[in-house]
Amino acid sequence: MKRVMIAVALCLAGCHDGEEGGRSAQAESLALDVDIRETAEARLERDGDSLRVRLTLSRGFGVAEDGAVLTGAGTVERFPEADVTLFAAQLSSPPVASGPCGAEPVSLALALHRRGSARRVAGSLTPYCGSGVWSGVPARNPLRLSSSAPKEE
Amino acid sequence: MKRLTSLAAAALATALAWPCAAQEKFALGLFHFNLQYVAGGMLGFWALPNAELDLESDAIEDLIVTESFSPVIDLYAKHPTWGVDIELQGYFLDVLAARHPQVLEKLRTLAKSGQIDVVSFHYSDQLFIGYPAESWKRSQALTQATFAKYDVPLSRTVFCQEGQAGEGLPGHMAELGYRTMVWPKNLWTYQHGDQPAQPLYGFGDLFAVQGGRGASSAEVELTWTFLDDGELLATGDLNPYFPDVFRHKPEAVKQYEDELLALESQGFAIVTVDQYVGAIKDKVPHPPMPPLLDGTWQPKSTTGVLRWLGGKGIWPGERDNEVRSLGALAQRELSAAETAAKSAKLDARAELDAAWRLLFLGQVTDASGINPFRGEVEYGIAHCTEALRVARDVIRRAKSAAGESEVTIDPASGTMTPGATAELRGTTVDAPLELAIDAGDREVTTGWEEIEAGHHRVEITFGVGASTKARVSFPGTLEDELFTTRALVDDSLATYRRSDFSFESFQLALPAGLVSLGKQRFLIKDQARVHLAAKITRESGTIEILDETLPPDETATWVFHLFDGTPEQALALARSVNVTRRVSR
What we know:
Oligomer: heterodimer
Structural class of chain B: alpha+beta
Distance between the termini of chain A: 24 Å
Number of helices of chain A: 2
Low-confidence stretches of chain A: 1-24
Largest sheet of chain A: 8 strands, antiparallel, barrel
Strand content of chain B: 15-25%
Largest interface: A-B, 41 and 47 residues
CATH class of the largest domain in chain B: Alpha Beta
């Protein structure tokens, strides 16, 4: 129940963004579930194919602090033949001593895909140990991100 | 297959049928272990949080090792004259090395002594019969490297996740050093009925045995003691979805041990599949196998491969088409990224290898079947999306290295050239054939385009609705011959005759997207838009595509190509759509 309430609250926050129920050509706020039980709020600001992301995590899963606010830059990637858009961004977290990266900072790759004009996005936040590390064997399984309700289009 | 409960009695009955003193007796056991049994862990499985049940992936993996895997290894360590096959994905060894080194050491010792044959054909328990071969090739290479890295001998025997099997496998097996395919008995009988098994079959230039099915001849008596999820034996048939009770039950192992002791006392040699084949191959005939279509090990209960490609399980939150089409898109993009990096002389080997690894983890079977819960669905989506991100990042860097802002990447020719190329689109036309579509309360629109003479593209859009089911039937002409491609062989056609089979219908994964609707007409699914099973029937040329996992309040759009021409031309088109897709980036 707590999770549902947080999701609703985050969605309502997102709905203040303007046209189309929280989406506009330049910015949108997304209420996300993280590994089902937890939540995140993502703020995506687009400028052409460039992207600025602000991600607030309810729980850090050992790769960020609980409640961490992560920011970073990225790109909007299009796959016209599949009618898919990918929002990709590079975020960073200071070391989390109790996590899999120990004393190392954590690079967190955000990847969210969207089909056509659907509201739903889904994807991952993948942690890599070290600063500026954006590939390799992740420090743990990618965190699973997907749109929280409502999902109607 | 469930372990036989009265092995001794069954073996005795068979022995009486062949009282020849020269008859050799063998008992085989193959334990299929899957570290991705609950892909991504149990978080969110139950509606309400529960610390005892909400275990993350590592904790579930550890339970599989300590409660189910280790006890089986220990059983065989206790009986040095017994042999057994342990099947696992390459990833399993990485986890053993990282968190259970003593178990790995024990496994290595027993593998080197020849007592345990460690069987592995893929790094991840991926649905390899449903994708172009490249993903499996990379997975297989990583498996070989992983076994070498940990100095564990890799068996010459092949058995796969969900019992996936196909006639295209021997071409790869031979060159990779494999010798024997264990073909699941139910995938055999589903296609040809319940006939007595031979002790050994020819499989191309290699060998095959019917997994789980005993055989008897004047020379050989074969019985199977186990062919099932290995996780179930030592835990008394409990599985890791119940982590609070998924525990080693010594009495369950003891019962199995007693059964093997009884067989041994009857003169059965308890051996590995490879030892069995080595012992009998020069003593018995090995007739060729009948024609067999690709599939999985329990086709009756899973409706073949449908359960992973459109068929619903028991939990809400399943979305087969999103999972599988995203896997296909990411695979295409990685192929394009390979081409782009090579063309631009960009050293991205490490990034691409890591992305392939993520991809075949994401293509895990359990993300869309048998009964995936939301966490497993999203495990697949998360891994594939990250693979897609890395692939696109490599392409971006390759373009930059080449000094280009827009390129066409053609994996077929291995080129990256400046400028964009037109997509596979055409001009709007009337429907060249009438589709039968049933999507419940959803509004359906279809749009046909002609790309060139004899080549149409159709886009079928399902509006939002309560129905989670959509079915599209493409009318075809009934011909005995059916053209498609086999798993792991994307570059040649496979021809089957419907009259060679006893089934009424069969579900095909279409790894290259291609199946015939008649002698000169073909259906090609665009796997990045629709990746669902194709149902063929013996008595009709119609192909049916079904999704029972449409999320209620989301739209869906499926894209197919309809092609009139020769089978060879159709194969070339299917490859260009799904295997080596040319993309503008």
